[in-house]
Amino acid sequence: MSKRQWLWSLRLGAAALLLSFSAMSAEPANQINSDACMKCHKRNGQMLGHHGQDAMKMSCSSCHGEKGDHPKKPNDMVVFGMQEASDLPVQLRVCQKCHTKKKLSEADWTHNVHAKKVPCAACHKLHSPTDPMADMTLKVRSELCSSCHTGKQE
Amino acid sequence: MENSKRRFLKGTCALLAGASGASLLATVNASGSVKAEPDVKYALIHDETKCIGCRACEVACREVNNVPEGVTRLEIKQAGPFGEYPNQFYHFSRKSCQHCEDAPCVNVCPTGAAFIDKQTGIVSVDAWKCVGCQYCIAACPYQVRFINPVTRAADKCDFCRETNLAQGKQPACVAICPTKALVFGNLKDPTSEVVQVLRSNPTQRAKVDLGTRPKLFRIVAKSGEVTL
To answer: Which residues constitute the domain of residue A108?
Structure first.
């Protein structure tokens, strides 16, 4: 009787230990999120997307550039997006370091026609766990087109 | 005596004039209702210079007309890219019923399921009359007909005749188009937008040499179009 109790407690203990280990290993997320930038950018800097995985060996500066004078302005940091962002060619150059024109063109035809006109971040979001451009239904996709292309077209 | 005679004559004359006037009006009315030509004839223009290939029209058509997945009443065909990266462009053309005035599908239909609506000129299908022989599918030079897997009848674009048009709205594809690349309207109304656009733009129709007299017009996009 006491032996059985002892065995059960051992099993429970082992299970608890395993669980705690797995929880711990899940907790300190990807390397990129322990970057020095996180000291200030904890709230708006979490990198949860595909580009944040350790295997990519990326840091914040891989895309955003070296810190330089930041947070003083002006600085050389690259800011992605449409508003209050870096110039379009600067943004494009960063993404095109890895994403070659050929690959972009093969992935989707819309890359070809927007190549000079909008930054990648106008549609793609890298910090969120999933890119909104992945697995879109045709309806969502056409609505996204309409969100910019309304009224008269060139 | 004299007075009453005059009154009688006056009265008769008035009666005669009234009667002849009424009969005249009646004949005018009759000729009006006999008039053979209806005053609505719908047509559609696809302005390829405005189309961005978003395919919102395909989605809207499917939703409004309950078209099952796997078949479609309307398709945007894409060609390209033309030019060198990053200065590239594509061409988009619409593939859907052309609403021929002399429609081969209607001419071959053995049951009368395929018909041209005399009031609007729309080529349509009475699903309950269709026996699914697919003769119309073979006959259509534009290859826009298909068998609807749910109704088992031949199906195709009918300018939303039974859905949006019946509710006084524009066809689904026209209403949804973000760049206003589709113009729908009455060819018989000289003030309609469709007539204005046709008058002010060079347009093309597909396979006119077959004598089908299609009513789907296209405003052709810029160069780079040569496809054989």
So the answer is: 78-154
